[in-house]
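Entry 14. Structure prediction run on the chain below.
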Amino acid sequence: MNPLWLQDIIRDALNEDLGQGDLTTEALIPEAAEGEALFIVKGEGVIAGLDVVEEVYRQLDPSVRVERLCSDGERVTPGTIIARVTGKTRTLLTGERVALNFLQRLSGIASVTRQVVDELEGLSCRVLDTRKTTPGLRLLEKAAVRAGGGTNHRFGLGHGVMIKDNHIAAAGGLTQAVEKVREQLGHMVQVEMEADTLEQVEEALTLDVDAILLDNMDPCELREAVRRIDGRIWTEASGGITPESARAAAQTGVNGISLGWLTHSAPALDISLDLKDKGEA
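Output returned:
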């Protein structure tokens, strides 16, 4: 990940939260006070986003020390202390919400991704994300998917061709769409096309495509599509797949399943920042 990009993302988040200053903390905490706080997990899950925590506190005060007590991708249980921060108490509290917002969100994505990966244990099928991400946070959210054991699909429109239903309609048909893409971009660019029906699958098998996205097909249709493709083209199932339905889709024999759910509906992992009492050992 480009460190300059990460710095900009965190700077924007801190500016949004800090505004004219942390009125509560500045009124209650002496400027010279030093403290220690712990990031503690309240539920079961997988951690992602510790780089972000470090960057939050680095920008606020480079003298703050962030000690990682686990790694991104690590499974955790309630009560697990995942990081310790020490330094000016004002800084620890001022950075709390921004650090937690990122950490909880990214760990939630990693956790649900791991849940789906576990559901597919024993099957030769990848768990893929989509571009259904929070605007501006795509790289972080896709990194969280990797931390959970998933695989990244396209990062953006320039990372491969995906011919979807609206493209097909605009081009005048599936064959025309594929031929136009190949004419414009040549053979070095991978082309994936969407197929909503078995008839489109049959048409795709006559075209120069590298992958077929089988969209919104039920398990019976998926199984029949995989049978007809017979390993000639890489297959991906997509459309309405959730952690609960993931295994049924994967058991049809597709090479991958993509879930927008991973990034647009994953619940945050409950994590808190607890400041140690002055008299606490």
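The domain at 122-264 is CATH 3.20.20.70 (TIM Barrel).
Filed with the rest of this week's runs.
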